[in-house]
């Protein structure tokens, strides 16, 4: 391991950022731990371009941790709609409450205490401490793991505990000596991994610019740039089918609040059947297969007693078969359009008739939001927030 690289890494990285790092991002140069925390959570698994649009809007609606903590969860989920990974939004809301109740509305500066808050892991705790409090706390997200594995030739799959521990030790060893350098250093690490030392097209292979670490990078010197860091080969994502009920009466559509523990937990969506493993010859994907309204209700609302009186007549039409890709699975959603002669009453409090013009007030999964937006726009409404 190069002692010289360890000694000068922080200085070189900060110098690189001053010349080639990203500048002027709305969450840069701020020390409000609440604003830093929101940006860090939003940037997890979301592209910077998307966050640039959504972060200011979120902060305008929830400008303080108190505002977020006292807001209804439905409002938070609605504002988060389209950003994906909705557990983050639920954890934001829970964490805000925790900060208010346990810390009097003030985020703790100690990374160890920050890590105890809902939805904040070790790396995010380090980022908040570094940006907001200038604490000498390391971060180790996917970008930083890649940088360190390449620079120092760390072999082995990064999912392995021993490798992960080695990377954390490196991350701590490389910290700048001066605490005031922590914000720019931490931002530089993030930027270098996101824009230069990228996974598939690092700058050193493109020849466009010269990497400041080219002569010291072990991956570069041993021709392992695209080999390191090593990753465990993932199995093919399983695929599923389900049927979804798009039940309408007049200008309203029936929504169902999803279980907190389910995918899209806590969001409002269309009532759906149990997911079935997708098979190549699955009859659920056969366009010749159709369901009656009675069969469909039994599939998606098995615990509800559906009236079948004359005034509750139903017309049913097979709609789109929508594919949605999650991180670890794929889902094919068969949409069934059903019109009801009256607003059927349901026993469950998680079922609600919602006017099309009010859909923007509800947190909806992105594919369902797009589906209903198309339906809404045909009637002159727009459910976009």
Automatic annotation (TrEMBL):
Q: Signal peptide location in the record?
A: none
Q: Which InterPro entries match?
A: A/G_AdeGlyc_MutY, DNA_glycosylase, HhH-GPD_domain, HhH_base_excis_C, MIG/MutY, MutY_C, NUDIX_hydrolase-like_dom_sf
Q: Which cofactor does it need?
A: [4Fe-4S] cluster
Which principal EC class is assigned to this enzyme? hydrolase
So what does this thing catalyse?
Hydrolyzes free adenine bases from 7,8-dihydro-8-oxoguanine:adenine mismatched double-stranded DNA, leaving an apurinic site
Which EC numbers characterise this protein's activity in its record?
A: 3.2.2.31
HhH-GPD domain sequence ranges: 42-195
Alphabetically list the UniProt keywords: 4Fe-4S, DNA damage, DNA repair, Glycosidase, Hydrolase, Iron, Iron-sulfur, Metal-binding
Give the Pfam families listed for this entry.
HhH-GPD, NUDIX_4
What the record notes about the co-factor is: Binds 1 [4Fe-4S] cluster.
Q: Which GO terms describe its molecular function?
A: 4 iron, 4 sulfur cluster binding; 8-oxo-7,8-dihydroguanine DNA N-glycosylase activity; adenine/guanine mispair binding; metal ion binding; oxidized purine DNA binding; purine-specific mismatch base pair DNA N-glycosylase activity
GO annotation (BP), single: base-excision repair
Tell me its family: Belongs to the Nth/MutY family.
What does this protein's UniProt record list under function?
Adenine glycosylase active on G-A mispairs. MutY also corrects error-prone DNA synthesis past GO lesions which are due to the oxidatively damaged form of guanine: 7,8-dihydro-8-oxoguanine (8-oxo-dGTP).
Under which name does UniProt file this protein?
Adenine DNA glycosylase
Species of origin = Polynucleobacter duraquae
């Amino acid at each position: 391991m190069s002692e010289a690289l360890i000694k000068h890494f922080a200085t070189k990285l900060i110098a690189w950022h001053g010349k080639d790092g990203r500048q002027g991002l709305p969450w840069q140069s701020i020390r409000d731990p609440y604003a830093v925390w929101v940006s860090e959570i939003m940037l997890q698994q979301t592209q910077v371009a998307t966050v640039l649009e959504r972060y200011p809007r979120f902060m305008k609606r929830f400008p303080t941790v108190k505002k977020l903590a006292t807001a209804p969860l439905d409002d938070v989920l609605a504002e988060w709609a389209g950003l994906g990974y909705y557990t983050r939004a639920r954890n934001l809301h829970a964490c805000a409450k925790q900060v208010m109740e346990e810390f009097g509305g003030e985020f703790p500066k100690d990374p160890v205490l920050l890590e105890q808050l809902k939805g904040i892991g070790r790396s995010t705790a380090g980022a908040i401490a570094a940006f907001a409090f200038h604490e000498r706390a390391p971060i180790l997200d996917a970008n930083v793991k890649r940088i360190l594995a390449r620079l120092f030739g760390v072999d082995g799959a990064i999912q392995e505990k021993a490798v992960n521990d080695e990377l954390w030790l490196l991350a701590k060893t490389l910290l700048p000596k001066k605490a005031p350098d922590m914000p720019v250093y931490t931002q530089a690490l993030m930027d270098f991994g996101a824009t230069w030392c990228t996974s598939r097209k690092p700058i050193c292979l493109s020849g466009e610019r010269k990497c400041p670490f080219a002569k010291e990078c072990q991956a570069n010197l041993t021709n392992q740039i695209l080999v390191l860091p090593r990753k465990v080969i993932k199995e093919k994502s399983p695929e599923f089918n389900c049927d979804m009920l798009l039940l309408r009466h007049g200008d309203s559509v029936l929504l169902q609040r999803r279980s907190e523990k389910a995918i899209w937990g806590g969001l409002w969506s269309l009532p759906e059947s149990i997911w079935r493993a997708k098979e190549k010859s699955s009859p659920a994907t056969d366009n010749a297969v159709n369901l009656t309204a009675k069969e469909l209700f039994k599939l998606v609302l098995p615990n509800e007693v559906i009236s079948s009186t004359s005034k509750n007549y139903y017309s049913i039409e097979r709609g789109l078969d929508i594919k949605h890709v999650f991180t670890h699975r794929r889902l094919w959603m068969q949409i069934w359009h059903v019109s009801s002669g009256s607003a059927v009453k349901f026993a469950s409090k998680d079922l609600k008739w919602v006017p099309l013009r009010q859909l923007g007030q509800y947190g909806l999964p992105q594919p369902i939001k797009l589906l209903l937006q198309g339906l809404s726009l045909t009637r002159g409404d727009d459910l976009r927030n």
